[in-house]
Design a protein that fits this description.
The chain is mainly alpha-helical. Helices cover 74% and strands 3% of the residues. The chain contains 6 helices and 2 strands; from the N terminus they run ααβααβαα. It is elongated.
């Protein structure tokens, strides 16, 4: 009996020995876990939006470039002695603006992806937040300006007979496919699609701006966590 009591007391003292128990899960560990999760979600959202922006920009470039090429071939092959297919003045500025704007957006998205994925100093939270914020605001400004510019010119020339944009002129033939000149339907569809995609890009860039703000919030939380750890350990990182 005395031996059994000794074994029970020995086992009880062993379980109560803090040196043999695993460290307790503290509030700091929970905060660190949440910050790590936020940082991972932020990173993948940035990658996803950059890829989406790049793909949409490539589609706009493809549509706009094909529209300009089709118009050039159509205009060059136009027979002089029959009724002209095009008005006296064709304003190509909206199509050129969409083409140029989409190219800029594609470059911005590539820069963002390189900063996120490449092993460079830009992967650090603060430099990455600065770059992402700058690119997000520049991209949003680009999409708004290009959309407003292309839409304004197209709408102003919609009812003109001596001047038009590629979209406003070819889309007048919509519903008249039997008598519409060749490729007019393709030019109308692709021009309209390019402009609509640029409008969609405005929504995406708004999300990118919001994501940039979230990046600063996450970076602030991570920095506070590091400072709190430094104060407890007395070690300056």
């Amino acid at each position: 009996p005395h031996l059994s009591v000794f074994r029970f007391s020995s086992s009880l003292s062993t379980t109560r020995n803090p040196s043999r128990n695993p460290p307790a899960y503290t509030t700091d560990d929970a905060v660190a876990g949440r910050n790590t999760t936020h940082a991972k979600v932020l990173r993948w959202l940035r990658i996803a939006l950059s890829i989406i922006t790049f793909l949409l920009a490539i589609i706009i470039i493809s549509f706009s470039g094909n529209v300009l090429r089709t118009y050039s071939n159509n205009r060059n092959n136009e027979v002089e002695w029959i009724l002209p297919l095009w008005p006296a003045t064709v304003d190509l500025r909206p199509t050129h603006a969409l083409l140029g704007g989409a190219t800029v957006l594609a470059v911005f998205s590539i820069l963002n992806l390189v900063a996120i994925l490449a092993p460079t100093p830009l992967r650090a939270p603060k430099p990455l937040n600065i770059l992402s914020t700058i690119l997000a605001f520049l991209s949003l400004t680009t999409t708004i300006v290009i959309t407003a510019f292309a839409s304004t010119i197209t709408n102003n020339l919609a009812d003109e007979t001596n001047a038009a944009t590629l979209e406003s002129w070819t889309c007048k033939w919509q519903g008249l496919s039997r008598v519409a000149p060749g490729k007019f339907s393709d030019i109308c569809t692709q021009s309209t699609s390019a402009l609509n995609l640029m409008i969609l890009m405005i929504v995406i860039e708004v999300f990118c701006v919001l994501l940039a703000g979230w990046g600063w919030w996450v970076g602030g939380r991570v920095r506070k966590e590091e400072e709190a750890r430094e104060m407890k350990t007395g070690i300056r990182v």
